[in-house]
Amino acid sequence: MNNKMWAGRSSKEVDSRVNDFNSSxxxxxxxxxxxIRGSVAxxxxxxxxxxxxxGESLKIIEGLKGILADIDDGKLQFNPEAEDIHMFxxxxxxxxxGDTGKRLHTARSRNDQVALDIRMYxxxxxxxxxxxxxxxIGVLCDIAEKNLDTIMPGYTHLQRAQPITFAHxxxxxxxxxxxxxxxxxxxxxxxxxxxxxxxxxxxxxYPINRMQVCELLGFDDITQNSLDGxxxxxxxxxxxxAISMLMMHLSxxxxxxxxxxxxxxxxxxxxDAYATGSSIMPQKKNPDVTELIRGKTGRVxxxxxxxxxxxxxxxxxxxxxxxxxxxxxxxxxxxxxxCLTTFIPMLSTMELYKENMRNAAAxxxxxxxxxxDYLVKKxxxxxxxxxxxxxxxxxxxxxxxxxxxxxxxxxxxxxDVFDGDxxxxxxxxTCVNMRKADGGPAxxxxxxxxxxxxxxxK
Length: 458
Hints:
The protein has helices spanning 16-22, 25-28, 32-49, 54-73, 85-97, 99-102, 110-146, 166-191, 210-216, 226-231, 234-260, 288-311, 324-349, 354-362, 368-377, 382-398, 408-412, 422-425, 428-433, 443-456, and strands spanning 151-156, 159-165, 193-194, 221-222, 268-269, 351-352. Helix content is 62%, strand content 5%. It has 20 helices and six strands.
């Protein structure tokens, strides 16, 4: 006998292999809380509008709350043979309440039901992800405050370029993360429209009150077109995009930590709790956490691409293809939360080798721009100053020395403009401290960046 909820049109049982292929209970069961919350709001509206008897509405609500409590307590296990979480909840409700339970699905479709559940689920997840990003920004601000004077090389093309501070470097990532928060907030705002009442695609003939359900569930508004309401997955794609951007930032940061913890740099050392060893080489201390984050970033990009490709050819309205949205977005969410949970304490416990950073900054002629600027301030055109400084660098390389160690006569051999004050002008401390422009590496400029970041996350 065909006992599916949608039985009636078909006279034959569905092949068991099709049932397995069609089923989504194995992954959408995580939305049981959202499904029950949505059903409670729907049942409340059905009773208040008189679409079903008020007494039956209250029985349905109590039955749903009992199912929620039993799932939370572990008394009720998900049935792997159920088609999806929606059918599982409804079947359990019907088993408990009989015909009364069958009235819950009046004036709705699984199409608008699942559209509601996934929006509610993603809203809840974003509310968890944003505080994690804020915590990471707080760690970056704490590190920056302790390292306002920790000089290190700044790089372009992975070549030493100009002196900055470790605080300045940390705050660059803080700014990226602040933008990430904005992207999640934007995604949340656009998904915060309530689709229930769209029906399968063309609403319903029952006198439903969509705004009541909207208010009960805490949405800003209802979706304005029923076709779009059931077939829109932009919010999934936008959330996956925000996650991908966040993962990209974590991956860039991870790449630098991998470099910095190598013997070639040795700027930092990860705490033993966040590094691993080798099965054969006893000296090894591997930054596996950051390498995994770098690898998992590609995985999240794949989730985003899955959603984009899934949606690009689906005509209006709902299509079964859209069931594929959940595994992709769930995986992206799980992955980014796992990465943040590990990355935050790893970063807060790492040890800095400040002297190594300072020594690296002393090599590579990263004060050459400041030498040229010194000449410009003395009246030379920048291009002439640039050429003189470049010639000095070539001279230093040939003689295995650095600008700071040249004698005043060696400076004057290229330009009489040089004077004794050149040594102060090209010192690393001066190079950093004089870059006071907003956004720069000078301690007073970085303090402003820290204040901005802390205010942004309040």
